[in-house]
Prior knowledge:
Largest sheet of chain A: 2 strands, antiparallel
Helix content of chain A: over 70%
Number of strands of chain B: 0
Number of strands of chain A: 2
Radius of gyration of chain B: 29 Å
Largest interface: A-B, 65 and 61 residues
Number of helices of chain B: 10
Oligomer: heterodimer
Largest sheet of chain B: none
Order of helices and strands of chain A: HHEEHHHHHHHHHHHHHHHHHHH
Number of helices of chain A: 21
Amino acid sequence: MPWWQNIPFLSLLLCLLSAAVCFVLPSRASRIWSRSVLGLCAAGAALLLFFLLRENAGPFTYMMGHFPAPWGNEIRCGVLEALLAALFPLIMLCALVSGSPWLSGAARGVSSGRESACDALCMLLSAALLAQIYSNDLFTCYVFVEIMTLTACALIVFRGTGKALAAAMRYMVMNLVGSGLFLLGVALLYDLTGHLLMEYLHTSIRALVLSGRHQRSLTLILALITSGLGIKSALFPFHSWVPDAYSSGVPSSNAIVSSLVSKGYILLLMKIYARVFGWDAVLASRVDLVLLLFAMAGMIFGSLAAIRTRDFLRMTAWSSVAQIGYIYLGIGLGAGAGYQAALFHLIVHAFSKALLFLAGGHLQAAAGGAGDLESLSGAARRKPWAGGCWTLAACALTGLPFTGGLVSKLLLGQEALRHSLPVAAAVLAVLALSTLLNVLYFLRTAMILWSPEKSPAPAAAPPMGSPPVTPAPRFPLSAPALGLLALGILLTFLLASPLLEALETGLIQF
Amino acid sequence: MKADLDRDLVSSLDEALPEESHLDSGHLHRHDAGVARQDRRLAAGENRAARVSLLVYRSISVLAALAVILILLWGVLDLPLFGRGNNPVENEVSLRYLQSGLQEGGAVNLVANMILDYRAFDTLGESNVLFAACCTVILLLRRIQDRESAVSPLGEASPSALPEDPVLALGARVLCPVILLFGIYIILNGHLGPGGGFSGGAVMGAGLILLRNALGTERIGRFFSYRTFRRAVFAALSFYALSKAWSFYTGANRLPSFIPAGTPGAILSAGLILPLNIAVGLVVCCTMYGFFALFEKGDI
C-alpha cells in the first residue's frame, strides 16, 4: 500500500485528537493549534489529490482496524473525496482566521477556557465533515452526523443571547427530527439487508429490487433518509430554522454553519443515492421528481423571502435556502451530469457563502454593528476590500461571468435540456426567474453598501432584534483569508474545465 | 410556522393591552373612548383570528403526525418477521462476530469485541458525541467565579448550600463507596461479562452526583475540580484516539501491532478492549457528573 493512502485516516484521527487537545490548551495556544491542524489537513488532502491524479489510481479503501470490510469499519477515497477534503478544511480555516474572535472583549477576559472549547468544537466539526466525506459505512456516517448536529448547535448558541438560544432551540428540534428519520431509515435498511457497509448494502438492495420483494419498505426507507437529510440540509419546505440559525453567531460561526455543515449532509445524501441505492432505484421510486419540485420551490421562495427581509444577515441566510435549492436541483436532474452540476455548485456556494458572511461581518463592523440594510449604507466605501469581496461573492451567487456561479447555472440549464420538455421548460423558467430575483436583492444591497452618502455617525443602538455584532476584528490575517476565498470563487470560473474533469473522474469513482 | 403564529398571537395581544390600560385610566373623552373601543374590538377580532389559525395549525399537525405514524406502521408490516432464523440480519457478519469473536477480539463479552474492536471507529465517534455535548454545556452554563465572591448567584438556592441532611449524608457515606466500586467493577469486567465503559461510567457518574448532593460542592471539589475534569476527559479521549490510530495504522498496513492479546477470560486480556473501556468509562462518568454540576451551579 502506498504511504499516501494513510492520509485520510491520519487527518480524521488528527482532528479528533486535536479536539481533546484544544480543550485543555489555553485560548491562544488552542487557536494556533486548531488553525495549524486545519491547514495541515487541507494540505494533506491536496497532496492526496495530487497523488491520485498522478498515479491515475482508482479509488482505494482503507481498513479501520484489523478486520476487513463487512466486519470492521472502512473508509474509502477517490478523487472527489480528496478534492472536497482539501476544500472544506481550507474554507473552515479561512472562516476561523478572518472572522472576529469567538467572544467580544469584555466576555473574553472573564471566561477563559470558553474560546478553547469553541476551537475544540470546530475541530470536532471538521472531523465530522471529513468522516462524511470519507466514510464508507452508514452507521459511521450516522455517528458523525450526530457530532455535526451538536457542534453546529454549539456554534449557533455559544454567545448565549436570547436570540441565539431561540435559534438554537428551533435548530435542535428540526435537526433532531431529521436525525431521527435518518436513523430510522438506517435501522430499517439494516433489517432488510443485514449490512451497514455501502457496497454490501448496494448488492443486497439490488438483489431485493430484482426479486421484487420489500419494495414498500425500500421506498419508505428512501423517503425517510431523503426527508431526514433534507431537513438537516435546509431543503425548501424544511427550512424554517435557517434564517435564525445562520444569523445568530459571530461571522466566523455563521460562515461555518451556513457554508459547510449543510454540505456535509448533502454529500451524504448523494453518497447514499449513488453508492447504496443506485440511481435506478431512486428513479424507480420517483424521489428525483420530489427533489426537483422542492428544489425549484426553494429557489423561488428563498429569494422572495430574501427580498422581503430588511435585515442584512437574515437576507444572506435566506439566500442560502435558494442556493441549497440549486444544489438539490442538480441532484434531482439525475446521476452523471446533474450530480456534476450539483457538486460544482456545492463548491461554489461553500466559497461564496463563507465569503458573504465574513465580508458582511467586516461591513457590519464598519457600520457600527448595525443589522438592518439602511444603516449599512456606505459601509463598503469605508472598507473597500471587504465590500469588494462581498460584491464578488454576491456576483458568484447571482451567476455573473468570471465567477463559478455562471458555470454551475450553465451546467444546470444544459442538463435540464436533456430531460423531457415539461421538466426542461420548468427548470429553465425557474432558473431564469431565480436569477432575476437574486439580481434584485443582491443589486439592491450592493447599491446600499456602495452608496456614496455618508451615513451620520454609526447608529448608537442597533435596532431591536438584530444581534449585537462584536467590535471590529483586528486580525492581521483577515484580509488574506478573505482574498483566498475570493480567489477560490474566481478560480472556479477560470479553472472550471479541469475542476469539472476532476469531478467527473470523482463521480465515476464515487 | 408555529412560532410565526405564536408571534402573531403575542403581537396582537401586545396591541390589545395598551388600549385597555388607557381605558382604565378613566379621564377619556367620549370620542377617544369610542376609538379605543373600536380598536379593542379590532384587536379582539385579530385575537380570534390568531386563535382560529392556531387551532387549525394544531389540528393539521396532529393529522400530519397521524399520517406519518400510519405510513411508518404500513412500512414496518412489510419487514421480515422478528427473530426468524433466515432473516437477512443472520448473515456472515453476525456469524463471524459470534463464532470467531473470542479468538480475534479476545473478549468473552462478544458485544465488547464488536463495539471496541471490530467497529471501534464508531465508538470513538460516540465518545466524541459526549465530548461535543460537554463542550456545549460548558460554553453555555459555566460561570467563572472569582475567588473573593465565594457564593454564586444560584449558590444560595442550590441544595449543596443547605445544611447537611444527616439522613442523606449517612446514606451517601454508606452507599457511595459501594456504588463507585460497583461502577469500577462494571468497567473492568466489561470484556469478561455484561458491562463496559458506557454502563459502568454511568453508574460511577451517578455515585459522584449522590456524593455531591450529600457532602456539598466544596468537599467534592477537593478531589474533583474543573481542572481534574478537563484533564480526565483529555486523557481519556486522547488515549482512545492515539491507541486506535496505532491500531488502525497497523491493521491497514498489515503490520504487527505488538499489543498482547492475553488468554481469553483473564482480567488482563483482550488487547486494547480493557484500556478502551476504562477511557470510555472515564468520559461517560465525567460527562454525567459535569452535566449535573453545570446545570446545578454553573461550575464543576
